[in-house]
């Protein structure tokens, strides 16, 4: 766990932070549209982590966001027998591009579809959250507990950002615009999961399933005592093929409430 944390911190220090608020126009490229950006920091940090993590665990594979964009067959590793590192080098690239510190580097270690450990690092905010299956979650060395919302509280829920959703997805997510719930567009998915694990956010409702966005955070939430699930009532599968939307929440009751509203509109 400690060696991976060192590798994550080093990748951010070498490849990400020197470019924060220092990007030139040619350092930023659109992938699938004006809201889907990649920078030189994303690419170099993923290359750095790919080398470092496979050195730490010989025989392991890496599923990184940028590698999958270049070659979708990289995703096949999630179905294989080798341990897999799931990497999002800069989660919240749009925030990074705009000089907003709300971005993170996400790393998870999975085997046969089960996430074993995760690291969520927000270098510009000085936050390192780690989780290990069955052993708990910590933020900067302090144990994390999500707790439960009070029965009278309005639920704060982060949802898929409208810039990245279809009309049908917007219609389903609109079911959360009801009494007792205050939905808002999400920022960095990884940091939204951290907000749940800290008890600062009550739930999420996401309509996309890229493993690099969710694997680290879902383990973090579960190890902090939270819950998650899809509208089909099934656990989220990092290999894909999930019924969407899905939720992560501070507790089981909150997750059920969010999923009930989403399923009724689906």
TrEMBL record:
It holds the Pfam family Inositol_P. Its EC number is 3.1.3.25. It catalyses: a myo-inositol phosphate + H2O = myo-inositol + phosphate. Gene3D superfamilies: 3.40.190.80, Fructose-1,6-Bisphosphatase, subunit A, domain 1 (3.30.540.10). It is an enzyme of class 3 (hydrolase). InterPro entries: Inositol_monoP_metal-BS (IPR020583), Inositol_monophosphatase-like (IPR000760), Inositol_monophosphatase_CS (IPR020550). Keywords: Hydrolase, Magnesium, Metal-binding. This is inositol-phosphate phosphatase. It comes from Streptomyces decoyicus. The lineage of its organism: Bacteria, Bacillati, Actinomycetota, Actinomycetes, Kitasatosporales.
């Amino acid at each position: 766990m400690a060696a991976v944390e060192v590798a994550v911190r080093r990748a951010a220090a070498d490849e990400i932070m020197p470019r924060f608020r220092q990007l030139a126009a040619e350092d930023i490229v659109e992938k699938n549209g004006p809201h889907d950006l990649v920078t030189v920091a994303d690419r170099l940090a993923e290359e750095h982590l790919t080398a470092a993590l496979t050195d730490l665990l010989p025989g392991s594979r890496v599923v990184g966001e940028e590698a999958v964009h270049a070659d979708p067959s990289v995703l096949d590793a999630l179905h294989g027998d080798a341990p897999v590192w799931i990497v999002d080098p800069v989660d919240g690239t749009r925030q990074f591009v705009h000089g907003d510190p709300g971005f993170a580097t996400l790393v998870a270690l999975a085997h046969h579809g089960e996430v074993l450990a995760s690291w969520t690092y927000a270098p510009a905010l000085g936050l390192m959250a780690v989780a290990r299956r069955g052993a708990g979650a910590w933020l900067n060395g302090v144990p994390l507990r999500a707790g439960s919302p009070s029965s009278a509280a309005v639920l704060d829920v982060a949802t898929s950002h409208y810039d990245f959703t279809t009309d049908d997805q917007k219609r389903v997510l609109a079911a959360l615009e009801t009494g007792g719930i205050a939905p808002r567009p999400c920022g960095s998915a990884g940091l939204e999961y951290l907000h749940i694990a800290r008890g600062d956010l009550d739930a999420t409702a996401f309509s996309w399933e890229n493993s690099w966005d969710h694997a680290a955070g879902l383990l973090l939430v579960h190890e902090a005592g939270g819950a998650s699930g899809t509208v089909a009532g099934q656990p989220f599968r990092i290999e894909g093929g999930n019924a969407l939307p899905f939720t992560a929440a501070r507790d089981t009751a909150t997750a059920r409430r969010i999923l009930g509203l989403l399923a009724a509109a689906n």
